[in-house]
Amino acid sequence: MWDFWLVDDGEQYHLFFLYASRALRDPHARHYRASIGHAVSSDLVHWDRVVDALVRSDAPAFDDLATWTGSVVRHPDGRWFMFYTGATLNAFGANVQSIGYAVSSDLYEWDKAPGPVLSADGEIYEKWAPAPEANWHDEAFRDPWVLADPDGDGWHMLITARSAVGPAHDPSDRVDRGVVGHAWSADLENWELREPLSSPGAGFGQLEVFQTHVVNGKQVLLFNCAVGDMPEAARAAGISGGVWIASADSVLGPYDLAGAHEIDDPTLYVGKFIDDRETGETKFMAFRNETGGQFIGEITDPYAVAWDGDRLVFAPSHSKVDVPA
User: Any idea where the Glycosyl hydrolase family 32 N-terminal domain is (predicted)?
Assistant: First the structure.
């Protein structure tokens, strides 16, 4: 198990997660075998696995290689929309990602809409190119985080994407093109691609698996970037990479990516905030990535969180968060 997202239907918490069989043995092979599993809980700690949500489509299709990370929102008419990443291989064998959705009335049985609703366009967002112009190892356009407009003007989608703008031949600059991709919809079904909500050059080759959340009164943007996907200067500075937290003026930014900080545990990846319905407290969960060079592939119990100045402090949810005076 690795990337995941959470939904509270008012009675139960729903956990949707990427998973693959450990019979693959090579943990890196999981990405091309990913399906979307589903579990439910009443307390965020004890989970019951239920029927899987989505699997890849038969070829040819935009998701015929794997189904990857997404998010779930509820339409005003009561339908649930799951936006997810579809992965396929192009004629060069490169991984090309685009975004589709599926609809459900009960969060258990999902029907995919035909085809992708969004893909990289090559003008605003970088498309993969073969050597010698190859600019990245895949066509990064994934991890849709969908949220309602704060003023009631439709819906917004934040997307893991890379800017099409930037020097073409400097490897260091090519690594530094990760942006907060953006799209807008009036109805969740038809989407308009828009300019990114951040600029390239922020120090990240890609910003993965976004979440916007208000944590104890402060608006933040949560994202993820491993040190291997950052420019050489970051690696030289000893940055460990992992889960990052940036302050934000609003859900649509501006985001303080230059001031973003990592959580203290580099073994965790793809963090998510969830509000505890019983206590009203914000909790944090993540998946256990690598420890001692070994992939773990487990999702944590919730952590309690509190602000220590501009940094978040984490503790097991049954413990009081001890913030220094």
Answer: 10-212
